[in-house]
Amino acid sequence: MTTTVDGLTQLKALAGVDLGHGDWLEVGQDRIDLFADATGDHQWIHTDPERAETGPFGSTIAHGYLTLSLLIPLFTDLLEIRGVRMSVNYGLDKVRFPAPVPVGAKIRLAGKVAAVEDAPGDGVQMLCDFTVEIDGSDKPACVARAVYRHYA
């Protein structure tokens, strides 16, 4: 279920709130190939299904940075922010990729708003702790702390 807030005051009230889990998203070879084309990273473990069958993972796997890039669309399942003029990705404090995402796997995002603090320019800085889960796996695909800025 998506949490919706309107304006910076309501956003500040989310500090410490667990946003739960989003919907599952299947990561297909077409998405992996498009990411490889966009980034120029055509390593065989991502783009050569035949060779990858005999490789260390038994199939192709998503790029770690593809998994990281999916935070944005997956996050929209968790939180909708209204009543702000602009929102920007400000950065990442920490990112890890504990387990690969095999082609065809389903992933989802679990998120918590760790903190919301005032930021220069009539804004707030929001720190979010994210875990990208893999359906059927004990280990997550990605664990990250993302930093966003929102302006009134």
In short:
With 152 residues, the chain is an alpha+beta fold.
Structural commentary:
24% of the residues lie in helices and 40% in strands. It is of the alpha+beta class and 152 residues long. The strands form 2 sheets. Strands 2, 3, 5, 6, 7 and 8 form a 6-stranded antiparallel sheet that branches.
Q: Residue share in helices?
A: 10-25%
- Characterize the overall form: elongated
Q: Specify the biggest β-sheet.
A: 6 strands, antiparallel
Count the DSSP helices: 6
Provide the gyration radius in Å.
17 Å
Work out the number of β strands. Answer: 8
SSE-based structural type: alpha+beta
From the N-terminal CA to the C-terminal CA, the straight-line distance is: 25 Å
Parts with pLDDT < 50 across at least 5 consecutive residues: none
Run of helices and strands? EHEEHHHHHEEEEE
Mean pLDDT across every amino acid position: 97
Share of residues in strands: 35-45%
